[in-house]
Specification:
Strand order of the largest sheet: 4-3-2-1-8
Order of helices and strands: EEEEHEHHEEEHHHHHHHHHHHHHHHHH
Number of strands: 8
Distance between the termini: 50 Å
Structural class: alpha+beta
CATH architecture of the largest domain: Alpha Horseshoe
Number of helices: 20
Strand content: 5-15%
Shape: globular
Number of domains: 3
Mean pLDDT: 84
């Protein structure tokens, strides 16, 4: 393998850098690592048992149980990182990798630093940031951003670290934990740092493209960057998720759905894609289909928080008000204080005629100086409370403030009564289709 970097199914592997996904180091043991190298070199072909044995147990023939155990030790971290079983067993013959494999030679492409070396402390900080962000809490996101900042100070030459910082900022903004203007500032700064180091770095291109398409209301420019990221890294799932968001902002909902489906083929258990696919089906008006996707997604990924929103909204729209409230409250027990979930609870309560409880939930969603609950969800609750004028004003603020969820305002069935206002807001903005 020497200095090559290998990419497959959203993962990246090199001798020096080990196994990574989206900037996070994935620890694997020495035998699992040797097996992965054999499978990567075969590029989807079957690696015979004899070859596996000679590589992993030189000098003595291994048992089938030993090979199966080693395969399990490789399957487990790949599965836990958000994938199904990427290791296929050809019974009686050997093992193969269920993924398209790309090889990158850093000497031939000097702008790509994926094989960058890190000291152990930097890697620990990087992994800590990734794990904290995965908690989906306000505190977790803030600590993740801080951990990445420390990692960046220790190693200023890593495009991956700076890209991860930008991605965390995007996640904070979409969750309602960071104001869009502040998120845009962080993303422009840190994705810019990554691109200064590696001008075609897909992670940086994709998050910066998303920010420009949504937070900065420059959808055409943003989509162009996302197109470049996907062309550069077709197996980078997050780029496709960001691209589907930009396509929706441009009024191209069918293409957004297709892009999310393409992303799920690459990363079938990815939380972001599962969330987005069900949400886009809701936006397309298919309530039953969106609920089915949400149910299936939660079976695969119970931590996919936005799927609870989809189920609660579908139940509310179907006049199953108690069910909607129960779903929203159960989700809040899992993700306490989440601004979007609180706004969805407010909507469900308002639809059920519980006006005082709905107002209280909406007030809680707006509690805190740095909390910026997405205007789309606030407007839906206000409209359900009978405050159409306030809801229209909230959507205007959402457009002006760069609320990322404003991209979906033309499709959200909860806002059907405000489609004239939304069309005018889009017309006053950048001419985005609505």
């Amino acid at each position: 393998m020497n200095g090559l970097t290998w990419r497959f199914a959203g993962f990246e592997y090199s001798l020096h850098g080990g196994l990574r996904r989206e900037g996070a180091q994935i620890p694997i043991g020495p035998q699992a690592r040797q097996l992965l190298e054999l499978l990567l070199e075969a590029k989807g072909g079957v690696v015979p048992k004899a070859e596996i044995g000679a590589k992993l147990w030189p000098g003595r023939p291994p048992s089938d149980d030993s090979i199966d155990r080693c395969a399990y030790l490789l399957r487990k971290p790949l599965r836990e990182a958000g994938f199904g079983d990427l290791i296929a067993t050809a019974y009686g013959r050997g093992l193969s990798l269920r993924a398209r494999v790309q090889t990158i030679d850093p000497d031939a492409q000097p702008d790509r630093r994926a094989d960058h070396r890190f000291d152990g402390r930097t890697l620990d900080l990087w992994q800590t940031a990734y794990e904290l962000a995965a908690t989906l809490t306000r505190d977790g996101f803030e600590r993740a951003q801080a951990a990445v900042a420390v990692a960046g100070e220790r190693d200023e030459t890593s495009p991956s670290i700076w890209s991860l910082s930008a991605i965390i900022a995007a996640s904070r903004a979409s969750a309602g934990y960071l104001r869009p203007a502040e998120a845009a500032r962080i993303i422009e700064r840190d994705a810019g740092r990554a691109l200064a180091l590696a001008p075609s770095f897909a992670a940086a291109l994709s998050v910066l493209g998303w920010a420009r398409a949504t937070l900065l209301s420059q959808p055409d420019d943003g989509l162009a960057m996302l197109d470049q990221a996907v062309a550069r890294e077709p197996d980078y799932g997050r780029a496709r998720a960001f691209r589907s968001w930009a396509l929706a902002r441009l009024g191209r909902l069918d293409e957004a759905i297709s892009e999310t489906e393409a992303g799920l083929r690459v990363v079938p258990l990815d939380r972001t894609h599962l969330n987005m696919r069900a949400w886009l089906e809701l936006c397309a008006g298919n309530l039953d289909g969106s609920a089915a996707l949400a149910d299936e997604g939660l079976r695969l990924r119970p931590d996919a928080n936005h799927l609870h929103n989809v189920l609660a909204i579908v139940a509310s729209l179907s006049d199953r008000h108690k069910e909607a409230e129960t779903i929203a409250r159960d989700a809040l027990r899992r993700f306490p204080g989440h601004p979007v979930l609180l706004a969805v609870l407010a909507y469900a309560l308002a639809r059920a005629g519980q006006q005082s409880a709905a107002e209280a939930a909406l007030a809680e969603a707006h509690d805190g100086d740095q909390v910026a609950p997405p205007h789309l969800f606030t407007a839906a609750a206000q409209l359900a409370l009978g405050h159409a004028d306030r809801a229209a004003q909230t959507l205007r603020r959402g457009r002006d403030d760069g609320c990322p969820w404003f991209a979906f305002a033309p499709y959200d069935p909860r806002l059907a009564a405000l489609q004239g206002d939304i069309g005018r807001l889009n017309g006053e903005g950048s001419g985005v289709a609505g």
